[in-house]
Design brief:
The protein is mainly beta and about 350 residues long. About 15% of the residues lie in helices and about 40% in strands. The strands form 3 sheets. Strands 14, 15, 16, 17, 18, 19, 20, 21, 22 and 23 form a 10-stranded antiparallel β-sheet that branches. The longest helix has 9 residues, at about 155-160.
Length: about 350
């Protein structure tokens, strides 16, 4: 039975006045389970506070909207408090404890994508909360917690039982959270909208690649990522990951047409993608996109920290590397047709502007 590769929207898992948590389910997007990938979104309203938690999966977080504050505690390290804003990418290795807070009117939305190969459930993140009605200490007896914290049992009962929220709460407007420190961002976050461009094609598109060079922590996460912005009606060259990596793509803005071709030249997906869609391209399958007139923007993770892609159009494509005789024999065409084919797309571009 062929897998359903069609893009899907996230569904709400829990939430309240402070905000909501959404996730993509492997039952609706089977490639999550097949590829051991998890994906979720956190949306915080004004004064929304995502309670401290750790996860069973290494992730990359990407801020889709708004500004806020993130608290990050790496194993056996001090807390880092980061100011975060739209375009920020943050690598979150195993064992990291995080909290998230929004003090502004604009909703703060953070996307999470990561590797679930060591998770409790393949294709899903499981978070372990430190506080709240489902906090881990609610499962211990008061005696155990009292001895662990060296506190009177009455104090322990208040600490464990006072917080009536679950996962996300809304704080009072006058509550003062820790102030972020500029130096805490170093090595922890990279703003993909402000970082140097790895690809910049006039009327085509732009790419920023997240890897161990500009954010070394992704090496611990084991994932790479990129932000791609395709101009209106431009095309992204057909290509594939040649190092057996999966590509997981979230559509941030705009819309466009997408085609994926798999084994034996079968087109396994032809669809229109739009903001909010998540899709996964299987290993070695070839994918191409054409943006609608309003453009197309997406953020992807790749299941290797330093991905390598092969493109099938443009000067750097494999076609240009093959000798003329091989192309003539492979296509079964004459020399003139081969020369015409080779003469086209001689730039380094992986994005092609719309035809004149």
């Amino acid at each position: 039975m062929e897998l359903d590769l069609s893009p899907k929207l996230a569904r709400k898992v829990y939430g309240g006045n402070g905000g909501s948590y959404y996730a993509w389910s492997p039952s609706e997007l089977p490639m999550l389970r097949e590829g051991n990938i998890g994906a979720a979104k956190l949306a915080l309203e004004k004064n929304g506070f995502a309670l401290p938690r750790y996860s069973d999966s290494a992730k990359v977080a990407y801020v889709l909207q708004g500004t806020g504050v993130a608290g990050i505690v790496l194993p056996e390290s001090e807390e880092k408090v980061l100011a975060i804003k739209k375009g920020d990418a943050i690598a979150l290795p195993f064992g990291v404890v995080t909290w998230w807070y929004n003090k502004e009117d604009t909703e703060l939305v953070v996307l999470f994508m990561g590797d679930t190969s060591k998770a409790h459930k393949s294709g899903e993140f499981t978070d372990f909360f430190l506080t709240g009605t489902n906090g881990i200490f609610t499962g211990f007896t008061t005696e155990f917690v009292s001895r662990a914290w060296d506190l009177d049992e009455n104090i322990v009962k208040a600490l464990v039982g006072k917080q009536a929220g679950n996962g996300i709460v809304q704080l009072h407007g006058n509550f003062k959270m820790p102030e972020p420190k500029k130096e805490h961002r170093e090595g922890m976050a990279l703003n993909c909208e402000e970082a140097p461009l790895d690809v910049d094609i006039k009327k085509g598109g732009r790419v920023v690649v997240l890897n161990t060079n500009n954010l070394p922590l992704v090496g611990e996460v084991g994932l790479g990522a990129d932000l791609v912005r395709l101009d209106g009606s431009a095309m992204c060259s057909p290509g594939f990951s040649c190092d057996s990596a999966l590509q997981v793509t979230y559509i941030i803005r705009g819309s466009g047409r997408l085609q994926v071709v798999g084994v034996d030249g079968h087109r396994v997906l032809e669809t229109t993608v739009k903001a909010g869609n998540l899709l996964i391209v299987p290993r070695f399958f070839v994918v191409s996109k054409i943006a609608a007139p309003d453009g197309l923007e997406w953020f992807s993770i790749i299941t290797t920290p330093n991905p390598i892609f092969t493109h099938l159009a443009g000067r750097t494509s494999v076609w240009k590397a093959l000798s003329p005789q091989v192309l003539q024999a492979a296509f079964d065409v004459d020399a003139n047709t081969e020369k015409l084919f080779r003469s086209k797309r001689n730039s380094d571009a992986i994005f092609f502007p719309p035809p004149n």
